Amino acid sequence: MTSSPSSARIGDVLVRVDGLVRTYGSTRAVRGASFDVQAGEIHALCGHNGAGKSTVVKMLSGQESPDAGTIHLAGRLVDLGSRQAAQRGGVALVDQELSVVPALTVMENLMLGDPQVGWLDRRRTAARRFRPVLDDLGLGHLRLDQPLTDLGIGERQLVEIARALGQQARLVILDEPTATLSDVESAHVYSAVRKVAASGCSVLFVSHRLGEVLELCDTVTVMRDGDVVATTSTADLTVESLIVQMLGELPERPDRRLDQDTESEVLARIDGLSVPGRVDGMSMTLHAGRVHAVAGQLGSGASEVLRALAGLEPGASGSAVVDGCPVHLGHPSGAARAGIAFASNDRKSEGLFLDKPIAWNLLATRLGHLTRLGVIRGGRWSSSLARLVALCGLDPKRSGHSVGSLSGGNQQKVFVGRSLGRDDVRVLLLDDPTRGVDVGGRAAIHALLRDAADSGMAVLFASTELEELLDLADVVTTMHQGKVVGRHAGRTSGALLLREMTHGSAADEPSAPAEQPPGRAEKREVHA
Amino acid sequence: MTTLTEPPVATAAAEHGSREPGRRKPTASDLVVVLAVLAVVALGLTTDRFVTVANAKAIVTSASLVGIAALGLTLVMIGGSAVSLAISQTVAAVGMIFLSAQSLGLVPALVLAIVGGAAITALQGAVVGYAAANPVVLTIAASFAITGIATGVSGGSSVSASGRGYDHLNATPGGLALSVYVLIALVVVVEWVLRRTRFGRTLYLVGENRPAARAAGMAVGRTTAVAWAIAGALFAVTAAFTAAFNTSANVNLGGTLTFDAIAAVLAGGTPISGGRGSAVRTLAGAVLIAAVSDILLLRGYSTGVQVMVKGLIVLFVVVIVHVRTKGRHA
Lengths: 528, 330
Prior knowledge:
Distance between the termini of chain A: 43 Å
Radius of gyration of chain A: 25 Å
CATH superfamily of the largest domain in chain A: P-loop containing nucleotide triphosphate hydrolases
Largest interface: A-B, 60 and 38 residues
Structural class of chain B: mainly alpha
Mean pLDDT of chain A: 83
CATH architecture of the largest domain in chain A: 3-Layer(aba) Sandwich
Strand content of chain B: under 5%
Number of domains of chain A: 2
Shape of chain A: globular
CATH class of the largest domain in chain A: Alpha Beta
Low-confidence stretches of chain A: 1-7, 507-528
Oligomer: heterodimer
CATH architecture of chain B: Orthogonal Bundle
Helix content of chain A: 25-40%
Low-confidence stretches of chain B: 1-22
Largest sheet of chain B: 2 strands, antiparallel
CATH topology of the largest domain in chain A: Rossmann fold
């Protein structure tokens, strides 16, 4: 690093977070988080979904103001009211979402929003400052005037990290920086992070990959339900003890009737499904009447498996057969013809027609059954509508209202309801079926999916939420870095699922401590 | 658990919650619309010779040719592919086909013209629908291609009629131009297609949210191509009437029709972003523009003023539509 603005000596407390509280409506996202980060330390922030780590990151980076509690930087109380204020205070953030501008060049992206870039001679100064940072990140081959569109997604992420590192920050926050990166690219990130820390900066590293956390970080702060559970040196931790900290008491799912009824009909067979860079030879079978889950964090490929089956991944290869008929991968209408219905995790932009009435949305994909010679039959339209509205538990008086006027939970009911109560849908795919849905809505949607399975469909959903996986799924397939890790039918434990989602299997990463997973889980390894 | 980390979704939903269609309070934009309509009516009533049967006929006749083409453009716009900028050129080329085919008789010439117009436009629609081409760029390119081919084939000169059959299109049954009856009939048919058929419903859904329609496995490409094909057939109807009226056709036959049709659709309040609109709205837009132009003409304003006011009407309606759409989401 060319710059080491921090006057703090390695080992001093650089960041002190004390009693942070943040409430959204009636939900207390963070209820009193306290921890210290030392200068030169790589400090991990772990926790399961909804534990509050993103909210802490937002408060540290000036995107949210705490309701109570204080943040000290280098011994001074700071008020980080905005991203700019946080940047001036020396906090740089690399967000989960890519926030680079593809149309601009590498250098322009590096200078974006950087308060320290002057108006005169900016290119030369910027080149002097950013060149070494890029070299450290393994981007030595990039020219500064290259447009970002020439770069792969991993390189773009590295450019974004370079921007944060080049801002001469005292605290660099990386929010799941490696989730979508390949191993080689991840290794570049690790070495850059080490260099930054060695120069006296602090790094706050948010990650779901427990292996890399233990490998890279000095200290881990674990959050659960908005509280800090513990801050522990990684030397004293194993993957299993970390999982215990993240989950508290381990949830285990109740017995499933599946144990008695293992002879159900195989409805769909997926063989060697691959999406370049995302999914690597995934195989599974789907049974009629069962709810299946693919469990995996962002970047695990779980979501892409569903998208590929729905025909939304043009590069997908492999075979999928539904009810004896091969599915033409790569086109959504091919998937629909094969009896596959898909509910995206992006309800607004890839799901519903928000300005259109509930009725139109519910019936959108079955217009063929409601028409004769292309003309809509009013009687059939209204009887189908009445049946579906009742099935989904919606208010019949509101079926003329736009879907956009509904709550998130009811929107999701409409989205799921679109595929229910019809013979031609055999496989129902849902990506994160309860995203943005409150507790009551969750239960209703879980009940809908269970009913759908009972009516003879095969249901397959992708999720990262242990409770949902344990409550709803009969069969769970865990994925990590594009590969299937394990397959669990019947009883399983949340700890085992979380271990496989965050760490892969012990065999995948030889550096990981080889310990027996806890719980009485039955586990079958899959030969992918 | 998800709700903890995703407050924006919850708030957005809450914002939508208060919306109740059908019974909402009048807003400032309602008032502006009422005042504007009153102003046009008042202007009309105080204009000499405006409230006469002869003048009403003149207005609907001048609205009819633009109106038929605008109906076609309405389908394109509802389907979410913005506009076609090749309307004038398509009309010119089809008009030349129509007149040179007169020797075959009126009906075969009409069929040939309609099939030709539908085919030329459907081809563009297929590229937009299946390959997600940008309709503006594509139709600019198509307009040059069509003009180029038409110029090449005709040798750059005007095509005159090879028979007299076309003259039936200039008939005025009941004292009103035939094109007016055709416009009204087509408005009824297009409105019915939009409201009552599978194609119509699908078109609205595709126009509102193309990625969602695609993900749902709906026939996005086919629906778009069919909408453009119908649009092309309607352009051809306008072409036949225009060519019959002029008795000869060259590459400039279409005149300013492209922008006149766009203006009519927009003045009817159909948003360019797709998913909404209707045939009746477009009819209203075409008549509104024709009526205001007529008032200005009767009051002795120059052509320059008429053209400028046309632009102002479009601007006014687009702004009002925009404000009202935003109002429904706020």
